[in-house]
Backbone:
């Protein structure tokens, strides 16, 4: 009899976005003349940079002719892209990352979800709260948690991100083996300072732990004091894997390209305590279960690093950050405590009330946000507002919120 | 301490293609004037169909403008593609497959590799020999095998595909829970008849087992008696998942699009013997760890089903099948028993000698094939020749082999 992975039974159905969709559709039926402004889901809204469009067209033309056609490429990505990433995203910031430590993939969701396969099932995992749900769900599927009790999974060390700690949790007092961190954070928009990240790296080195560092929103950092990469922190090459994506940087949410950096200095241990190179393990996993990213898409990603690409991406990001500033200052003016929005496209607003209740108040004004409770227990009382929309829509949304709340 | 998934230590390093590469490069150094003809790796060589190129360009233009830009799409694939697949690949052959049973992905390698995550680790798995290595490797990683002893993994039920059984193994006498089948087969090129597949479906229904049916080479079937889909077999909707790919059909090896069919009738059982819908489980996995295929690529895949696309794909396949016929008849003329090459791009040649020795004899003539032993113990003595090349190269390769072997 074909038996299931019973850990799947522990998963909570995620009703967050379907609940939102239902409430929005009910509102629209009752208010057909108020067009909704969506500042909920973290999806970009502007067209791809011109440099990427040109690269895509050129690569598609190459695919049309036998002479220039590309079949299977290297599973890890083409050298032209891996080299551009290593040089521009890391070496230019003084991070000693080599091209062959970069693994190109079709998404940070896949990579952050798949990476846990390399680990034993009985390690201790620390996961922030609130958090992007993929870290937790994939560890539940793998059997690294117990049951769901009192709103939390047994066996997980939750890292509470609260107003009190500035939404950057301190290292735990106990020893954990695997730590998920995400800065600039989704959903809070908070960033971690050099000193805070150094504490985490030191903790990981001391405990022979590994940090999975999700830097998908790195491009939104404007403050020169905030590190863009965990590899700006001394010692990180030994204890940290970094996930990056072109989704939010260059608007690739519907184009699909990302990458993961696995330094050759990272070690992982077998049951006898013998060290193995994490890089070799991930390479084996990647080559066995993945067949590379489409050639035209890799060419488009590489175009992000051209001078035109860099200028166009900067313009996109600047536009979204201007929206974020508008949202942040409007919400502050209305008396709400906010974090994020300065080095992040997300603004995490303390609504001083039930998340869903606050969501409903904004919806009445025709504005969709995301209730913080959907991201974890510590998200209760908050909402996430996303800057991914046109400036006109954002200005109009803030005007609507102002009217409804004052 | 971060501990590894120790099952990775059981994996054998795959030296097959790197060994081939080394021998080829040594030959080239010694014979700089003999250009190598590659009939080894199963990668297509012709440009993408014109209909796909046009669809790609059009979709890229859509991605350039805010108004037509596409961000995150449905993880399972756009309805336009799922509907085209259900209608053209299944309903047109009398298979009752609905669009929402089709999950679009970036490759059959990913899907065939990832699907085993849904199962308990202590189920009994049957895997053919010789075989595409992904089925076995991903089950090793998940801990469903013991150690490697006498050339085989403990705990796996190997399905020997030999000349004696026409390279279609009979159902095992014992009960197994999960069965991998691949027809037209990689590497042998053999096909399974309706009666043979019916036996497998009946076996699976009797044992509450599940068949993972890899039909990546379906497009090469010319014989009207051979089923294209497992769903042409009565009862298969209850016990079979089917993997398909645009890689070999439309030359998408470097473009990346595939799909998996999970009928809603397929059940899987928990430890109490309670039935759960496999469709819901795969949907949860797919949405948690995957973020959909790039919009332009899905448009290109959908173009395969347009009248022009169908004609262009047929021309590509016919060309490769003409090559296959040339190879098959040349090898038969030289006195070798062959299978495949009629409904498959692969010809499996009984070299009547050590696989690598035969490989070396062909390499001396400047032709690269794949030694059968690389696909499993039953592949010893065989080589796989691929029809993926230009007709001129295939004719020249056969001429060289003829000269060297006679």
Residues:
């Amino acid at each position: 009899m074909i038996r299931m992975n019973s850990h799947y039974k522990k998963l909570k159905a995620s009703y967050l976005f379907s609940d939102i969709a239902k409430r929005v559709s009910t509102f629209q039926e009752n208010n057909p003349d108020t067009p909704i402004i969506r500042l909920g889901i973290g999806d970009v809204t502007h067209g791809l940079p011109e440099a990427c469009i040109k690269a895509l067209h050129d690569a598609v033309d190459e695919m049309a002719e036998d002479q220039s056609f590309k079949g299977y490429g290297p599973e890890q990505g083409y050298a032209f892209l891996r080299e551009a990433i290593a040089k521009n995203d890391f070496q230019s910031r003084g991070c000693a990352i080599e091209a062959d430590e970069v693994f190109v993939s079709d998404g940070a969701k896949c990579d952050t979800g798949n990476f846990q396969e390399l680990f034993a099932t009985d390690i201790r995992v620390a996961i922030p709260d609130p958090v992007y749900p993929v870290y937790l769900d994939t560890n539940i599927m793998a059997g690294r948690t117990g049951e769901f009790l009192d709103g939390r999974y047994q066996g997980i060390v939750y890292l509470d991100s609260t107003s009190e700690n500035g939404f950057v949790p301190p290292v735990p007092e106990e020893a954990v083996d695997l730590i998920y961190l995400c800065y600039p954070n989704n959903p809070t928009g908070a960033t971690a300072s050099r000193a805070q990240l150094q504490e985490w790296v030191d903790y990981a080195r001391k405990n022979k732990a590994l940090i999975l560092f999700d830097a998908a929103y790195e491009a939104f950092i404007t403050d020169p004091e905030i590190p863009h990469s965990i590899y700006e922190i001394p010692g990180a090459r030994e204890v940290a894997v970094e996930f990056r994506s072109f989704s939010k940087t260059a608007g690739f949410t519907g184009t699909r390209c990302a990458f993961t950096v696995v330094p050759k200095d990272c070690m992982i241990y077998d049951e006898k305590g013998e060290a193995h190179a994490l890089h070799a393990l991930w390479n084996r996993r990647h080559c066995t279960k993945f067949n590379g990213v489409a050639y035209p898409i890799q060419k488009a990603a590489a175009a992000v690093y051209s001078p035109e690409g860099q200028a166009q991406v900067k313009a996109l990001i600047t536009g979204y950050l201007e929206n974020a500033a508008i949202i942040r200052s409007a919400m502050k003016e209305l008396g709400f405590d906010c974090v994020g929005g300065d080095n992040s496209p997300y603004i995490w607003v303390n609504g001083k009330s039930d998340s869903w209740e606050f969501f409903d108040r904004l919806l009445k004004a025709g504005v969709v946000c995301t209730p913080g409770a959907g991201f974890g227990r510590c998200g209760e009382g908050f909402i996430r507002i996303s800057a991914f929309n046109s400036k006109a829509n954002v200005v109009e949304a803030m005007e609507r919120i102002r009217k409804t709340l004052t």
